[in-house]
Design brief:
Blueprint lengths: L27 E7 H5 L2 H13 L2 E7 L1 H9 L5 E4 L2 H9 L6 E13 L7 H10 L4 E3 L5 H17 L4 E3 L2 E3 L5 E3 L4 H11 L2 E5 H7 L6 E3 L7 E8 L6 H11 L1 H8 L1 E2 L2 E2 L6
Parallel strand pairs: 1-2, 1-3, 5-8, 5-9
Antiparallel strand pairs: 3-11, 4-9, 4-10, 4-11, 6-7, 12-13
Length: 270
């Protein structure tokens, strides 16, 4: 039986101690996953199949990548699913995990009332120069990290003005909303305020029928969004390795066959 925890609780209580301790590391997996994997619906599908095949219970919390990695650092989870390659590599380099396994990918997309044609960088420049309402997750997630890379690139290559503060790197202006929330909540706010938002494809597809925002996709390797699984080295539980084996085998079939309204939301390396 799985127990997805309500994300908002993390803003009320400290991150440590959110999940119960596994007695032997064999029959329970404590997992921290990104909100996009949960909000897209894939997490529950994977867990249901995994539990039925192995008998290992999964207890998970959905947070941004930064928070998930911090839970790994403190040993409050056995493994993490995240999507920020730079942060993942730092996690490995600092000795919290030996390796990371890229088990799936999709792309980042923009959801917006209207955007001009062109590249994603053209779109972001237009958003800033026209002061078009923009919602940022602002939560140290993989999506938030990708957004900041775009603003930084525009600052370096096109001289776009940016500031760096508690909300990260972004253009100045009251049109920019940094909300510190997960992907689904951020999309809902963008819909309500008729703003533009950067999203992963999976969550965008899951929410598309309930929002008025258009989806803009870009055939650009920069917008690739890889998801990784990392086992926390200090714990190194049997259950975490069992889940890794599943992601490398049967889990790949589940990911390939998972669709949202007829659209494939995630892909695996061929």
């Amino acid at each position: 039986m799985r127990f997805p925890l309500v994300v908002v609780l993390l803003f009320i209580a400290p991150l440590s101690g959110c999940l119960t301790t596994s007695d032997d590391g064999q029959d329970k997996l404590r997992l921290a996953t990104t909100t996009s994997i949960r909000d897209s619906g894939l997490m529950d599908v994977l867990i249901e199949d995994f539990e039925s095949r192995t008998g290992v219970d999964v207890e998970y919390v959905a947070v941004g990548t930064g928070a998930a990695l911090r839970l790994g650092e403190t040993g409050d989870v056995d493994a993490v699913i995240v999507h920020s390659p730079e942060k993942e590599q730092q996690f490995v380099d600092e000795g919290f995990a030996e390796v990371r396994f890229n088990f799936a990918y999709n792309s980042y997309v923009l959801l917006s009332p209207s955007l001009p044609s062109g590249s994603v960088f053209d779109a972001f420049e237009h958003i800033s120069t026209s002061e078009q309402c923009f919602v940022s997750r602002g939560d140290d997630s993989g999506t938030h990290a990708k957004e900041q890379l775009i603003w930084q690139h525009l600052n370096t290559t096109r001289g776009l003005e940016v500031v760096e503060d508690a909300n990260g790197v972004h253009p100045p202006g009251s049109w920019y909303y940094s909300i510190g929330q997960g992907m689904g909540a951020a999309i809902n706010m963008a819909h309500e305020k008729e703003c533009t938002i950067l999203s992963d494809l999976g969550t965008a597809l899951a929410y598309q029928d309930n929002i008025l925002l258009q989806r803009y996709e870009y055939d650009d390797s920069f917008m690739r969004n890889p998801y990784s699984y990392l086992i926390v080295d200090r714990l190194n539980t049997t259950a975490s390795h069992t889940f890794l084996s599943y992601l490398q085998t049967n889990g790949q079939d589940v990911i390939v066959n998972y669709t949202i309204n007829g659209h494939h939301a995630f892909f695996v390396e061929s």
